[in-house]
Amino acid sequence: MTEHRTRKRFGQHFLHDRNLVDRMVRTLDLKQDDTVVEIGPGRGALTYPLLEDLPHLHVVELDRDLITLLRQENTPDRLSIHESDALKFDFRTLKPADKPLRVVGNLPYNISTPLIFHLLSQSDAISDMTFMLQKEVVDRLTASPGTRDWGRLSIMVQYYCQADYLFFVPPGAFSPPPKVDSAVVRLLPYPTLPHPADDEDHLRRLVAQAFTQRRKAIRNSLKSLVSLEQFEAAGIDAGLRPDQLSVADYVALANLSPPQS
């Protein structure tokens, strides 16, 4: 493949460690009838191993130079290339009638968090997502209440899905090597939310407000949204810190404190 110059504005770090790629592909346990979408195929380090196990693959790519290279080496019957910003792409359009999508990718670190929430907004069309991300982000995605990494991202992602840390990826697996460690995470959207909020926008605002004073009692940061009586009704100690409450706790508080119209 012709040499491609990496572009900082796309946050490009290309994976080149075949052993780690193969490990990632094995964790997917692909079936021939899976409809798989790869976000950000880059130079094809993950794309080509996926095509070894699949008859067809969808990819979403924004970099026109990379798209040209992929088109030169692949036919449309094997690889469908969608030239688009993944943050704006409607993934539901790729879902077949009988089975949800599977999404995979080495995500650009500069857009990974908004992209995950964009995908979760379409989770009715997705069965699972397996991503290589900055390790710090994976630690937050998969954190548990009471740990230092538990926060807004953990709560709002785990509201929608199960998040599993799969394995560590060192900087040397990429070209150019990033200045941070990476890891692989699997996100499994819940078919039915275990703790549904009456108003998800209110839940998001409440969680964001709670973590404005992470080290103080939660009654302080939420005093404008939740009364002490509502804490008591939810069975939650108002003296706990925000990072000590679970997803279920935050949903209970949100449902007991609907915004006044």
UniProtKB/TrEMBL annotation:
Domain of life, per lineage: Bacteria
Enzyme class per UniProt: transferase
Cross-referenced Gene3D superfamilies: Ribosomal RNA adenine dimethylase-like, domain 2, Vaccinia Virus protein VP39
Major localization listed first in the record, in broad terms: cytoplasm
MF (Gene Ontology): 16S rRNA (adenine(1518)-N(6)/adenine(1519)-N(6))-dimethyltransferase activity; RNA binding
Residues annotated as domain Ribosomal RNA adenine methylase transferase N-terminal: 20-191
Record-linked SUPFAM superfamilies: S-adenosyl-L-methionine-dependent methyltransferases
Reactions accelerated catalytically: adenosine(1518)/adenosine(1519) in 16S rRNA + 4 S-adenosyl-L-methionine = N(6)-dimethyladenosine(1518)/N(6)-dimethyladenosine(1519) in 16S rRNA + 4 S-adenosyl-L-homocysteine + 4 H(+)
Residues reported to bind S-adenosyl-L-methionine: H13, L15, G40, E61, D85, N106
Function per UniProt: Specifically dimethylates two adjacent adenosines (A1518 and A1519) in the loop of a conserved hairpin near the 3'-end of 16S rRNA in the 30S particle. May play a critical role in biogenesis of 30S subunits.
Name of this chain's protein: Ribosomal RNA small subunit methyltransferase A
Organism (species): Alcanivorax profundi
Gene: rsmA
